[in-house]
């Protein structure tokens, strides 16, 4: 299996001139990818942000074809 801890910061601006580093939105979470020697089983992530809320995402198909990595 693989695991990750992540943090993301950013904001949407209406123009390049409006960009500044104040009032950034921050999100964070953990992810787990489970596979065996020949196949991907699932990926799950649990995330939140400074705005609150808790999000669970579960995927049963890989985003990329990683079979060479598993062999």
Question: Describe it for me?
Answer:
This protein is mainly beta. Helix content is 6%, strand content 51%. It has one helix and four strands. It has one helix at residues 67-70, and strands spanning 2-10, 25-35, 40-49, 54-59. Strands 1-2-3-4 form a four-stranded antiparallel β-sheet, with no helix packed on it. The longest helix is centred in the C-terminal third of the chain and has 4 residues, at 67-70. The radius of gyration is 17 Å and the shape is elongated. The two termini are 13 Å apart. The relative contact order is 0.23. The mean pLDDT is 87.
- Placed side by side, the strands forming the largest sheet appear as 1-2-3-4
What would the average pLDDT be, to the nearest integer? 87
Shape: elongated
From the alpha carbons, calculate the radius of gyration and give it in angstroms.
17 Å
Low-confidence stretches: none
Q: Secondary-structure element sequence? A: EEEEH
**Strand-residue fraction?**
over 45%
Class computed from helices, strands and strand pairing: mainly beta
- Distance from N terminus to C terminus (CA atoms, Å) equals 13 Å
Helix content: under 10%
User: Main β-sheet: number of strands, strand sense, barrel status?
Assistant: 4 strands, antiparallel
The tally of helices reads 1
Count of individual beta strands: 4
